[in-house]
Amino acid sequence: MTDNGALGLVETHTVRLFTAADPLVLASGSTLGPVDVAYETYGTLSADRDNAVFICHALTGDAHAAGFHPGAKRPGWWDNLIGPGKPLDTNRFFVVCANLLGGCQGSTGPSTLDPATGRVYGLDFPLLDMADFVTVHRALLDHLGIERLLIALGGSLGGMQVLEWSLRHPEQIANAAIIAASSRLNAQNIAFSAVARRAIMDDPDFNDGRYSESGVLPRLGLRTARMMAHITYLSEDAFSEKFGRTPHPERDKPGFGIDFAVESYLDHQGKVFIERFDALSYLYLSRVMDYFDPFSRPNATDAVTAEPVNFLVMSFDTDWRFSAEHSRRIVKHLENAGQPVSYRNIPSPWGHDSFLLPVQRYHDTLRAWFERTLREGLR
User: Which of 37, 90, 198, 346 has its CA 20 to 30 Å from the CA of residue 259?
Assistant: First the structure.
């Protein structure tokens, strides 16, 4: 670790948390084993084990949140937030980030081999629930010898995981930050994901989820899904500022190819995505988001009412994928449950992607909140 804000080289670890003999019992009642999980840690766990922070990643994230892997050109996806002297200061906090169950970056998912058949699970992989992510997170904490988190933190799908964890197991979390997230997707959100999944499943190379056995990938479908998703991640102002109606520099004459700079950007994002993410994981993880509706459960807030958590809920004023109304709904339910909640709607031109960016007011707010958690400790 260095002192200039950079973590330097980091290593991804993999641990087997559940086995065939002692499987993971899913919320659906299905069982899954073995279950491997990829994770990274940054900083040093204190002697009292009271400085642990768990990062929950978004839909297409992974365990590599900060620092560099050997040979990598880019740092982890939240490197602007995590590191020595940064808002989440690894000289003071011990940070853990794990790849989700159902993911494709080292954790067990639908592209993993099914030991019962010797074939990739494919669409035979069981459907997942937000609670299943939390069960695996908690098993990882047991493996690391951490009983209670100082902070659980996440944006988008990551924030949804933090909310689920806080409602079901508040005794394990002292402070929870839920950023640019939702407690219940609206019809428009579900519609975007439905079109993305349809693009993947209608790709001629999808092969009912067994594309890897044929040595192919549903490239066109996955690329289209990512291109459409990127449109929802940026605000109209961000698109206008970055691209406007600027023609693509290699455009010869008007046609149906890549005529505008924004088309080139989306095409690039789609192509890059194919190389790092699996189509089956996209299907499974996006579907979990569709069904997430924790406050509809009977007695949903009973546990957290008995064991309060300090919440920070944040939204961004140009985020139209998960608008401020989604965050305010979370705040309302938590306030009704008597929870100590701070809410901030941060000005930012960058839309939903703002939670990944070094927006000054956003980082200043987090830094101040992190400082307070350290002063108050685990209570």
Answer: 198
Other CB atoms within 10 A of residue 87 CB: 20
In the residue annotation, 317 being an active-site residue is answered as no
Average pLDDT, the chain: 93
> Which pLDDT tens digit goes with each residue over 68-120?
998 788 899 999 999 999 999 999 999 999 999 999 999 999 999 999 999 99
Q: What's the predicted TM-score (pTM) here?
A: 0.95
Catalytic residue selected from 319, 323, 333, 353? 319
- State whether 245 and 305 are in the same domain: no
Does 352 participate in catalysis according to the annotation? yes
Domain membership of residue 254 as a residue range: 189-287
Cβ neighbours, 10 Å, residue 374:
14
- Integer-rounded Cα radius of gyration of the chain: 21
Give the CA diameter of the chain.
66
pLDDT of residue 246: 66
Angle at the Cα of 218 (from 213 to 221), degrees rounded to 5?
160
52 and 179 within one domain: yes
